[in-house]
Amino acid sequence: MSERLDSVRSVAVGLWVRQGRVHEDPAEGGVSHLLEHMAFKGTRRRSARDLAWELERLGGALDAYTTHESTAFQARVPAGDLDIALDVLCDLTFRPRLEARDLEVEREVVLEEIAAAADIPEDIAFEEHARFLYGGHAYGEPILGTRATVRALPATALAEAHRRAYRPDNVVVAAAGAVEHEALVAGLARWLPDRAGGPPPEDPPTPVPGIGMRRIPRDGGRQTHIVTGGLSVPYRDPLRYAIYVTSTALGGGMSSRLFQRIREERGLAYSVYSFHGFFSRAGHVGAFVGTRPETAEEAREALLEELDRLAREGLTKAELDDTRSQLTGQFLISLESPAARMNRLAGIALHGHRYRTLDEVAARIDAVDRTQCLEAAAYFAPDRLATLELAAEAAGGESTPPRS
């Protein structure tokens, strides 16, 4: 898929491989992410430095990331250099060396990445909450894997994942900016490998939610981090737009309910917000608050009270009108860059969704009504949620043991 933007002089282009955390065996958790790293260590034609310099010498850039459902390799280059970008992207994606000596180095890099995340309490809280909420499903497992699985991953696991998933019929290509679609197609015909197809990746099972309360004590720290959330609808469900609106009104900015009630009126937190996410087989909604140990119970109760009120009453007409306007503006502003347009196209293709123009999406947001928002708000009801506290020890007190 491609989208031409006449106002820019650059091109963003990317390849999305349908290979992510949900396609991994539990014992090989993190193989997709480690394989993404290894792709940049060199190919039969280019060294690691050559891969980077080929685009950087043009003023461009190369990047990649892994999600639960896919792995993306992206480039941004000046107009006119699309063919070079496609050559580099196809080379590193389909022809990485995957040598054992590189694996040992990159394994250490990923272990450092895992260690860095383990130093951020908010990240720990969300990781533990995801495991709780998704109850053992791969959607709740960390994309990076764990220290144990990454240390144990053999080179053969990376080679097998690459052989199975990294083939043209399992890849989505998206580009946006100063791009002609015919040039994109011609470049892909030139640089994509002639590799036999295989069976499509299996859809993950539908997850069964975890519900209830867990408290995990931690040494040190000055805050307790509280994450609460529940399962909602998958990406293709039409209620997704009402969830966007409802979640934004709840905690999507300084004017939201959570910010005003918990921070501005009661001073219980510096950071408080809502969140939502959508996968192919499920979605989730929820809220977060970080607070001092001595105010943790009060903050948790205030958070759940707001979620309960939202689930019972939905949004007021004024909230709905204001939030639809807010979301439409945010959506349009967020898509001013070629990279954002490219990522939007890729998401549409990966989920088998119909392409809609910006005006059509804005119209969808504007069409959300209070009845739909009340239906969406039901997913925030406290009795449907998993609540996780990463509990710092209060001054002079003791942490209670975890419970489920």
Task: Summarize the helices and strands and which ones pair or pack.
Layout: E1 2-4, E2 10-17, H1 31-39, H2 48-56, E3 61-66, E4 71-78, H3 82-94, H4 100-117, H5 121-134, H6 147-152, H7 155-165, E5 171-177, H8 181-191, E6 212-218, E7 224-231, H9 240-251, H10 257-265, E8 271-278, E9 283-291, H11 296-313, H12 317-334, H13 338-350, H14 358-366, H15 370-377, E10 386-392
Parallel strand pairs: 1-5, 6-10
Antiparallel strand pairs: 2-4, 2-5, 3-4, 7-9, 7-10, 8-9
Helix pairs in contact: 1-7, 3-8, 9-12, 9-15, 10-11, 11-15, 12-14
Task: Give the end-to-end Cα distance, rounded to a whole number of Å.
Answer: 46 Å
CATH superfamily of the largest domain: Metalloenzyme, LuxS/M16 peptidase-like
Rg on CA atoms, Å: 23 Å
Mean pLDDT, as a whole number? 93
Largest sheet: 5 strands, mixed
Helix content range: 40-55%
| Top CATH class of the largest domain | Alpha Beta
**CATH fold topology of the largest domain:** Cytochrome Bc1 Complex, Chain A, domain 1
Query: How many discrete domains?
Result: 2
Shape: globular
The percent range for strand residues is: 15-25%
